[in-house]
Amino acid sequence: IYIGVFSIAAGLFTGVLTTLTKVQVRESATVEVSQQAQFVIQTVQRLVTDASIIELAANSATSTLKLRMADAAKDPTCVELSGGVVYLMEGNDGFNKQNCFATSTQQAKPLTDSKVVVNTLNFTKLANPPAKDTVKIDLTVAYNSTNPQESLTSRTLQTAITKISAA
To answer: Which of 13, 67, 123, 142 could pair with 154 in a Cys bridge, judged by C-beta atoms 3.0 to 4.6 Å apart?
Structure first.
């Protein structure tokens, strides 16, 4: 009789432990996705606010945001999605002062790491003359895992940032 009670208790304990582990894995994936998505949004918000000009065609979505900066060392500044990673490039490519992301001498800095994959990053400039321009951002980030408990974790953010600094 003691072996039967012990077997039932062990089975229940194993079930509870398995459930708690699944919840913990899912929660850690959710936290990672949220933190990296917020970091990208906050970085873009800071850059747009500091920019002199948002250099995008109006009302046309693109995966590269090009900003003109007052600081020559940071002009132009670009944010781009490539291969599931969001990159930041400050300064020109070394050949043409208008281009970003063209040479290996100025490496782009990743804003996301291998724990997540960015499925969507679209920037749309909303021109609003005579008021300030706005950049609409559509971002979808997912946890980068083959584990089905983690791979379902994703986050989609849509926001708009108005350029408020003087040109």
So the answer is: 142
